[in-house]
Amino acid sequence: MSSNTGQQPAVTVLGLGPMGRALAGAFLDAGLRTTVWNRTPGRDQELVVRGAVGARSAEEAVAASPLTVVCVVDYDAADAILRPGAVTGALKGRTLVNLSADTPARARESAAWAAGHGIDYLDGAIMTPAPTIGTPDAVFLHSGPQDLYHRHRPVLDALGGTHTHLGEDPGRAAAYDIALLDIFWTAMAGYAHALALAKAEGVTARELAPFAQGIGAILPPLFEEFAEDVDSGGFSGAINPLTSAASSMAHIIHTSEAHGIDAGVMRATEGLARRAIGLGHGGDGFIRVAELLGRSAGK
Ligand code: NDP
Question: Taking the model in full, what pTM does it have?
């Protein structure tokens, strides 16, 4: 950034949880004039020591910069900050980038609200943890008007990592976020269950770790392979048909329940596999379940 001109771009960050602090810290490191505000006072102290301006109100914070980034727990929290009249009024004619996580529907509703109040609006999602911000590992997804995104891209680039504009539909970044976190949390549920099961069998988390990594490494190439299959309507079970997968799932359920461990997550998975088999798809691969689930959504 052009810190040597005395005319550094200015940016405001609303919300100073771990992620908001990381965003503001990256803007400061890039030499931007950074104004910060948080509902609970005092969370700005370290940032102010590093050169941020600590605003006394959200309205004052928004008025300090052409671009405001809001990053709080969800859109209820963002609305609580942004929708009081004084703050909405201060945002008029400026740009708001909402990097809080919520649903695609809330993102679209926020974009409509912003449009109704003369606020330029981009929605976004952050796909990596706070310590990655300002490093090449950070991953940001954006959606909303393309020209607006390109206009603010130089400031967003100060956050490091990769930035991808996914389209004009303001809900698109949240749609990717929801789908990707679906992968993450269901995988984490499987991992947590596996740790409990392994412990009951006398295997420590440390002992399991290298093999857990091996199983995890199988997944990334499958994402590529299944993307081809699913988009072209193919669900090949040549390597591992659903009948075989369901049998393997049943072993996990029996072992869990023999140890008195709740097998709910695996029961749900096995239930989906059995439903697909019942509908005559036993020779297909497990990913047939995606098509089955989509049927009830009419997609
Ligand atoms: P949290 O999700 O815990 O959010 C904390 C922030 O929300 C604080 O600034 C808090 O203010 C504010 N807040 C909560 N309720 C309200 C309210 N009613 N009115 C005003 N402000 C409110 O912390 P993070 O910073 O970690 O996350 C922010 C967003 O970033 C979330 O949507 C999260 O999903 C996303 N994210 C976070 C990642 C991470 O590694 N932390 C990774 C990727 C995405 P106060 O201090 O006053 O309570």
Answer: 0.92
